[in-house]
Amino acid sequence: MKRIAAFTLLGGVLLMPDLSPSLSAQPAFVNTLMPQPAHLNVGSGALAWNTTVTVGVPHFRDQRLEGGLERTLEQMERKTGVPRQREIGNSSTATLVVDVDGAGDAVQSFEEDESYSLTVSATDVKLHAATVVGAMRGLTTLTQLVQTDGKEFFVPAVQIEDTPRFRWRGLMIDAGRHFEPVEVIKRNLDAMAAVKLNVFHWHLTEDQGFRIESKLYPRLTGVGSDGLYYTQDEAREIVAYARARGIRVVPEFDMPGHTRSWLVGYPELSSDPGPYTIRREFGVEQVAMDPTKESTYEFIDAFIGEMAAIFPDAYLHLGGDETPGTQWKNNPRVVEFMHSHHFTNTEELQTYFSQRVLAIAKKHGKHMVGWDEILNPALPTDAIIHSWRGAKSLYDAAQRGYQGILSQPYYLDHMKSTEEYYLADPLPANTTLTAEQGKLVLGGEACMWGEHVNELSIDSRIWPRTAAIAERFWSPASTRDVDDMYRRLWAESLRIEAVAGTTHLMHEGAALRELAGTENIDALRVFSSYLQPVPFGERYRGQHTSQLTSLDNLIDAVRPDPPSRHAMTVLVRDLLKQPGTNNPARAELNRIFQSWISAAPVIEDQMNHSPLLAVARPRVEQMAKLGQTGQQALGYLAGKKKAPAGWQKKNLAEIEAARKSQALVLFTFIDPLEQMVKAVK
Ligand code: ACM
């Protein structure tokens, strides 16, 4: 906007304008962008975001661009409280000018140009992109730039030239083990757009449920879904919703293994007659489709033809994982087929199957993605290899000329810290791939498997950790500062909940209120904020989980890698630089330890009325005890008193005991607390 226009002569009196940020103290730019852009120059000054902002789209425009722009303006309104501009004109001298060359791909591909340039000055914002998707990426950055000096909102002057490092930046959601309603998918698509992810990999079929309507084969959902599935109209709605946000939808129909739900209605797809029921247990299933019968391929051909009309993306994910071939080995007819084809093992038989389904996909105009089990010299190189058992398969594939995507380090149910996901790089600096082979690494996907999530808890397992993974996929390889990532992650986490309506933060409070049966959860929140869920395997083995297991325990309420873990690490790092002085880290740690001690009796009282909470009683007792340990360590580190003989040994043993899970939850502070105790002389 034109700041000068704010100097208004009224009745001959020069009214001084309200000293807005762009004219006053030149507010400092605080970078909370996530993902970080490829190139960022910080200018001086800032554009005040107020009602005088006008919007112009001088060149190309279409409905998708207008929709993206309207969502952006709405987000700006919600962020700033400034009513949004309702008119999108065509002026190239508007405050916000969105200059786009053209629509981009008719069906978004991984070749889509997502780059943009964004220039903010004290007077205007100029966004330029070759495509609508590029423009949407730039608009997302604009919403992340908004900040406040405590009085007004402004957009700091910056010059950004941005383009993604990887072309395939995905999130996989498994709707098979637990069904996820349409609104869950939509809010996660909004969250994906907020961090510039561009592939929604929709895992639609599993042993535990068949989740997409087939009109050709109605018994697939009729008896294979418990009535929980997406209609074809809903699937089209999701595809359109994703496209409007610059996100591709790659559906997965996992085969020949993980197919027990198909066999409930169509047992003839397997080599054994059945009958089959929906599998409730998790883990690897022994049954599979029969790769020897032509009727299997006729079924798949018709089914894929039906699905190809619903999902416009050039790629279909056809699974291929975890097929032990037990049924095949035990069936004389299948064994005879293997002999006659000179297959010496079931892997070769599966490759035969992969070749057949790849040809079927091709017939319907689609390419195939498959989990890394499909990698075999006999497979054509136009299949994309999806690496999940180790990054090695990705690099082997690239050396043999296959394109690939990496998921092995990005399994969200492993409950690793954001930091660990963040530092895992699809193409690390020490890669042995040549530059040409490196180009075959298309990117990666975060994977949200569905065994242990339902519609209430899923967002808290995906976000905000996936925002850091999104940065790994988008930003330059050199963007690796973990402290800075966490600083920006907490800002991004709030933004995602605000703009996407995800429940990753609010779920914890709601779940704790339900567990405690009261709104009074202040003490419980102290406890839960220092807890995190055990990894997938530990829960699976510890609780013998199945699809029928209730997901309403303390473990389902608490968040993976909550802010306390990294915060404690930093506080103890700061403390141990000057352990004897009174500094902010010491004061904060003392406050934290006291909060554990004070919260414990309140929580223990609540546990008397809640059996689901009471299982964690030993954990609360440990927290209070370790709070005392922490306060004692602070005292000894101050050097006024010496720790008595045996103090360190005894407390280290207690810390070690507390490192183990109890009630399927882990403490977030064990390592830094241990460091403090070890530092006591
Ligand atoms: C997989 O995790 N079975 C791909």
Structure characterization notes:
It is a single chain. The chain is of the alpha/beta class. It has three domains: 2-162, Chitobiase/beta-hexosaminidase domain 2-like (Chitobiase, domain 2, 2-Layer Sandwich); 168-480, Alpha-Beta Barrel (TIM Barrel); 506-679, no CATH class. The chain is built from 26 helices and 22 strands. The strands form five sheets. Strands 3, 4, 5, 6, 7, 8, 9 and 10 form an eight-stranded mixed sheet that branches. The chain has an eight-stranded parallel sheet with strand order 15-12-11-20-19-18-17-16. A two-stranded antiparallel sheet has the order 1-2. A hairpin with a 4-residue loop joins strand 7 and strand 8 (125-129). Helix 3 (182-194) runs parallel beside helix 5 (232-243), helix 7 (294-308) packs across helix 10 (346-363) and helix 18 (522-528) crosses helix 22 (584-607). The protein is globular, with a radius of gyration of 28 Å. Residues 321-322, 371, 388 line the site of acetamide (ACM).
Record field, number of beta strands: 22
Give the number of helices: 26
Strand content: 5-15%
Annotated CATH topology of the largest domain = TIM Barrel
Mean pLDDT: 95
The major β-sheet equals:
8 strands, mixed
Gross morphology is globular
Q: Provide the list of bound ligands, each named once.
A: acetamide
- Uncertain segments are 1-24
Helix content: 40-55%
Question: Any idea what the radius of gyration is?
Answer: 28 Å
Distance between the termini: 62 Å
Which CATH architecture of the largest domain is right?
A: Alpha-Beta Barrel
| CATH H-level homologous superfamily name of the largest domain | Glycosidases
Q: What is the structural class?
A: alpha/beta
